[in-house]
Structures are given as structure tokens and as C-alpha cells.
Design goal:
The chain contains 5 helices and no strands. By secondary structure, it is mostly helical. It has one domain.
Length: about 150
């Protein structure tokens, strides 16, 4: 039974009291209707809270998207400035130094990564405390498995 099922109450429509005739004992429509009103009011409050939370979540998401867009624009502008300044320095250093200097300046400006979507949960990190023998054994098993899979497919 879910959380919603815990809050729903069953109201007996045949509540008997010590006074009154049998017809009044079995006919308690007013109590039943009042119970329905109470349940509807509670559900309306729950729906209202959910709507407020949805609006808050949408606003937070919009703010995060805007901030990510601004950061991406700032990085792009910074990369453009660096690129605009680099040709002068590359020409000067190219005449004086080896081609290795050009490679380092070309790799100095990495491409901007897109903003991650979701909860920014980091992925699994592999263990780094394996010995070289263990690593070699794992590599051997991996190659054997890959060969087995290729043999099944081929």
C-alpha cells in the first residue's frame, strides 16, 4: 500500500448509535458527505503543495541553465581573446623556436565542455591499488573474453 493509501480512510456508512430508529442508524449521509469534503480538502492542499514545488523546481532549473549558458559564453569569449592574441605570439615564437612551441600553444585552449545535465553525480572511479601482476592478469582475462566474444559473433 502506497503513501496515498495510508491517508485514505474508509468511512462506514452504517454507523449505529444508541438512539434513534433503524432508518436513522443506517442513513448517515451527512457524515459520509462531510468525510468526503474533508478528503477533498486534504487532496486540494496536497495538490497545491505539489504545484508550488513544481514551480520552484522549474525556476531553479531555469536559473541553472542561464548560469551555465553565461559561463559557456564567458569561456567562449575568453577563448576568442586568447585566439586573437595567439597568432601574434605564435608568429614571433615560430621564427625563434622549434615547431614544438606551436603544438603547446595549440593544445593550451581545450574545447569547452557542455554543461552536464542532471544531478551532477560523479561516475565510478576505478581502484588504483592493483599491483602490476594483478593488472597483467586482468588484461589477460579481458583479452581472452574479447576473443571468445569475437569467436561467437564470427
Amino acid at each position: 500500500m502506497g503513501e496515498a493509501g495510508k491517508n485514505n480512510f474508509h468511512f462506514n456508512s452504517n454507523i449505529r448509535s444508541n438512539h434513534g430508529s433503524k432508518t436513522s442508524m443506517s442513513n448517515n449521509e451527512d457524515r459520509y458527505l462531510r468525510a468526503l469534503e474533508i478528503q477533498e480538502a486534504k487532496q486540494a492542499l496536497i495538490d497545491e503543495e505539489l504545484e508550488k514545488q513544481r514551480i520552484i523546481d522549474e525556476a531553479e532549473k531555469a536559473i541553472a541553465d542561464e548560469k551555465a549558458r553565461q559561463e559557456a559564453e564567458a569561456k567562449a569569449a575568453q577563448a576568442e581573446e586568447i585566439a586573437a592574441n595567439e597568432p601574434d605570439t605564435v608568429e614571433e615564437t615560430a621564427s625563434q623556436e622549434s615547431p614544438a612551441a606551436e603544438e603547446t600553444t595549440a593544445t593550451a585552449t581545450p574545447a569547452a565542455k557542455p554543461a552536464p545535465s542532471g544531478n551532477n553525480v560523479p561516475g565510478p572511479t576505478p581502484r588504483k591499488d592493483f599491483s602490476s601482476d594483478e593488472r597483467a592478469a586482468m588484461l589477460k582475462r579481458a583479452k581472452a573474453y574479447a576473443a571468445e566474444v569475437a569467436k561467437r559473433k564470427g
